[in-house]
Backbone:
């Protein structure tokens, strides 16, 4: 089945850009990033900042923006049978040159897992102008497939946000 990325969540103050690979089936259905309750994304960010992000999606988006965090996916579209990244075929990247040109405050890309980084490196890094980005960092995936302890993930994610 062909799937498409959600629109980016970004504003003029965003400094960090967290990139997943492509939205899950549940995220697509709800039109929300990290909609699967088994995905630890929101819980990990709450742990990083020791703050509750809220239960409502709009509260979670406000939380992100208050922390200067933008969200998007590496892939604009792909074909995938399930939500698993290892099922992806025919990947097409998002237009990062345009996003970064319109949001020069973005300085650090944080990859939510190694697959997001791999697709970015293969499809984007050499082919698109990345403007004034200062760095890239791979973080442990928040996917339910990653069985690492949540506290270990929080520790690594927290270190990335101390960059500024």
Residues:
């Amino acid at each position: 089945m062909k799937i498409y990325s959600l629109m980016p969540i970004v504003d003029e103050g965003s400094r960090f850009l967290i990139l997943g690979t492509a939205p899950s089936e549940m995220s697509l259905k709800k039109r929300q990033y990290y909609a699967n309750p088994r995905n630890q994304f929101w819980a990990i960010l709450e742990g990083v900042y020791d703050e509750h992000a809220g239960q409502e999606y709009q509260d979670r988006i406000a939380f992100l923006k208050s922390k200067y965090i933008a969200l998007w996916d590496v892939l604009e579209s792909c074909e995938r049978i399930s939500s698993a990244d290892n099922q992806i075929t025919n990947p097409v990247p998002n237009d990062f040159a345009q996003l970064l040109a319109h949001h020069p405050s973005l300085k650090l890309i944080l990859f939510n897992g190694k697959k997001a980084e791999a697709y970015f490196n293969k499809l984007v890094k050499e082919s698109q102008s990345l403007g004034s980005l200062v760095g890239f960092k791979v973080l442990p995936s928040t996917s339910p497939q990653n069985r690492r302890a949540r506290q270990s993930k929080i520790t690594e994610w927290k270190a990335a946000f101390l960059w500024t």
In short: The chain is about 35% helix and 20% strand. The chain has a mean pLDDT of 91. The first helix runs from residue 25 to 30.
